[in-house]
User: Fold these one by one.
Assistant:
Number 1:
Amino acid sequence: MYFPSWLSQLYKGLSRPIRRTTQPIWGSLYRSLVQSSQRTNPEFNSFAVRTNTCGELRSSHLGQEVTLCGWIQYRRQNTFLVLRDFHGLVQVVIPQDESAASVKKILCEAPVESVVRVSGTVTSRPAGQENPKMPTGKIEIKVKTAELLNACKKLPFEIKDFMKKTEALRLQYRYLDLRSFQMQYNLRLRSQMVMKMREYLCNLHGFVDIETPTLFKRTPGGAKEFLVPSREPGKFYSLPQSPQQFKQLLMVGGLDRYFQVARCYRDEGSRPDRQPEFTQIDIEMSFVDQTGIQSLIEGLLQYSWPNDKDPVVVPFPTVTFTEALATYGTDKPDTRFGMKIIDISDVFRNTEIGFLQDALSKPHGTVKAICIPEGAKYLKRKDIESIRKFAADHFNQCSLLGKLRLECADLLETRGMVLRDPTLFSFLWVVDFPLFLPKEENPRELESAHHPFTAPHPSDIHLLYTEPKKARSQHYDLVLNGNEIGGGSIRIHNAELQRYILATLLKEDVKILSHLLQALDYGAPPHGGIALGLDRLICLVTGSPSIRDVIAFPKSFRGHDLMSNAPDSIPPEELKPYHIRVSWPTDSKAERAH
Ligand code: ASP
């Protein structure tokens, strides 16, 4: 696909650290627009009552009569206004002569953040008054007419990126927060990346964009689902965790290359990188193997990657699950830096140090180490103490060394070492996961490591009938800078095997999935797929601190919409058609009485 140069320039300009000042951004926008050609530029002014955007005006527009719409960013001495729209800022000269008294009144009295429309001429600024930091800094608008489109009341916070505000306040007034340059940038970049993904999948590779239902039924295993009451007594829909079953059924239906920008729902506790509703780039295809899916995703990311970043280098490196755990202590290793875990058991085989001897005498007992480069130079005594405490607090977790590795990296960076290059994007495939893991609540039972539709590794099928715990799967995860950004698998397309895994190994009620099992019996093709977590991916690309910063209307940490106050209570009479009555916890009853 042709990627318009204005956009690549936009990416380039906007992806710098911009939290402190808006100036560099407008500067970059300036370059992006100057370098763009009319032919490839989106038409920002079509159908609108303006002739130009505020940010696009340059010396090349001198003498033109323009009409602009925007928000009043600030006013100086009743002589100048700075008008803002998504494209940038422009200086407007407030007329001082008697004949324009009404225009002056409008522009001088409208509070900051009021929205106005002005018409006038583009003129050059008087010599010496140019502002080189402002992309429109060589020109100004001599206003002839002005119209107050809507006045703004006193704001709960200033619309300036560098003004600190709490996240709760930002979420409560999200529509104002969206006016910030950072949010504008994040959402526009997200839209452009998705656009390019659609191009790549549909136009270059023949995928079909298909919507699947969001009112569905319970799926066995996996995350907790949100329930939606129905008017049939005791019957509920579930919101899907993902379109997994539908995309497999589409394969049975012969739609052999499916994709969707899919909304998924999981009723799990909030974490910084999780939201109860989130978006996946969901993909499934028939007649494909693991390497086929991996190459597809590498191409997709390469194609949709913002041009200002270092190009994505493919193929991505691959490690097995076992290697990842042994070398990094986690199945989502951050490979931007070394500090790998090394087995030094042999060095201590004949040691007389008691606790090491003790460790080595246990079955599978090992002694492992991480070499911290220049640790002695960078780390202070209290850092070593905090590492020791961290290790003690997490003792007996096998993931301890992996956590310790990241903890040490954080410490080194706070002491000034540059360990993780902020411009580096380090992709990694993790493959050969076990098919099953012991259930957390009952380790004697098994649960799927990915989901129950994942096919076993071809060389481990026999283990399903003898030692299922040892069977590896055809499940692959994509990791970026230590974050899981995608996961998928080759699926089971044989009904008998699927039934055996569900009923015998996972002890699930197969009736819930009878439609899928039946479909597999009617000539289901071999198939596989993957889903990329779009919010997480964009969060990493934009360098945002939280996925909430790349979602227009996210939920709070506790899963609430702080703007509208969802979830909300429903009067009992409105619950009647659903045959539902709320059983209030005793203390909340007391609370409600107040
Ligand atoms: N549906 C899976 C998930 O959401 C991804 C896949 O296997 O394609 O994790």
Number 2:
Amino acid sequence: MVETIPETIPETNANCLFCKIIAGQIPADIVYESDSAIAFRDINPQAPTHVLIIPRKHIATINDIEVHDSALVGSLYSAVRDIAVTEGFADDGYRVVMNCNAAAGQTVFHIHLHLLGGRSLGWPPG
Ligand code: 5GP
Ligand code: ZN
């Protein structure tokens, strides 16, 4: 039997928690949706507003972002801008973080921006 090679890398990962949320297989409190991204409230919030913004495409870590993903990654920040307005802290300020791999504490290997707002945030972070 001849093995066929996919022309493109699969855009979803069947074992990925966030791909399951995108597919509607796991419930989430979704606050934003676009063609390229979705956002939902973190299950363990670290601020009055703690939203995760993720691309619909499965990308495991920042290290796996490719040149042709630039617009996709940029669209995550467009989502942040809009959600910050909706949540009411765009002018006061907020923080956006993306953890990468073990030293930063990444636990879900589908890239996501953490949007934290609604309180003062110390610096440097832990
Ligand atoms: P990381 O540690 O990878 O930067 O962030 C993963 C985030 O996903 C954590 O803040 C964690 O609370 C959140 N999280 C883990 N599982 C779920 C879930 O099933 N639903 C939601 N909404 N958030 C989750
Ligand atoms: Zn995924």
Number 3:
Amino acid sequence: MSETSFTPRVFSGIQPSGNLHLGNYLGALKRFVDWQAKDIETIYCMVDLHAITVWQDPADLKKSTRELCAGFIAAGIDPEESILINQSQVPEHAQLAWVFNCVARMGWMQRMTQWKDKAGKNQQNASLGLFAYPALMAADILVYHATHVPVGEDQKQHLELTRDIAIKFNHDYGVNFFPETEPVIEGAATRVMSLRDGSKKMSKSDPSDASRINLTDDADAIAKKIRKAKTDPEALPSEVEGLEDRPEARNLVNIYAALNEQTVEQVLADVGGRQFSEFKPVLADLAVSKLAPISTEMARLMQQQDEIDKILARGAERARAITAPILRQTYDIIGMVPPPAV
Ligand code: ATP
Ligand code: MG
């Protein structure tokens, strides 16, 4: 079975769990914009059904979903060029997820590091949704027959599981119906780390606001967070090898490289030998110059809630032209009696 029989199509999503941050921007949003510029169909999603796998205040969730939509557009996603959707408005995601719950095996889910990290020591008290999350993610992707999924490093394991689900489905039913999706994990910042702890990734759900740069932070907040970012006492190295065992230094250099669209080698050739006291203000200026226009545009769009809601409604309509036939064919393959045509 080869994937080449599937038309290339890009899908990716972000959870509207608040606090959209620099890691989401560099690892995901910025990549999404790059893909949009190529000659390939792109579908981007606010995955609200994933967000509720942990508690979300209902009013906050509505606001975060609209804010995320504003974030996509402010970062450069054009809702005419790409299909921009809110997951719960396209019911085929959840419908296919149920089918995949019956394809995926318990053992596969138990191995997921995100499940182990997020459920922590209290697995018995975690939601069933948090455990089943990767099957819904597989459905998000495969309900479009998407072939390429740009994501940050942390999602690699979920994409491998998506392939496993596609392979098992195709094998069990003797079809070549779902593609074996390719993860696309590219750039200098596929795993932006917390500014307070170089061993933890920057996350929306980190309780410490100082750990991340939010896309809604103003220039002062960005500069302050970078100034206070954890570092070591050494000067910056001139070669990449000099960043080994220096996770905090490596993180700041990676962020600089990704924001300035340079390689890490190029950045170190410029800043090698400098102290953090010199490098941090330069990084802060760069971050402000790249992020301030996005946060200003987000704030402007948030004043136009009706416009955002219309964009999402239109996106859902376009999406369903793809997802409804794929779900119908899936049901047919697995032996569901089709409803009468309307
Ligand atoms: P949460 O903590 O609620 O899981 P999150 O910050 O991990 O939030 P997600 O919505 O789960 O954000 O992920 C959206 C996209 O952003 C995914 O493609 C993910 O790989 C990417 N991403 C998340 N955090 C980082 C990071 N620190 N560096 C690079 N990419 C990231
Ligand atoms: Mg996450």
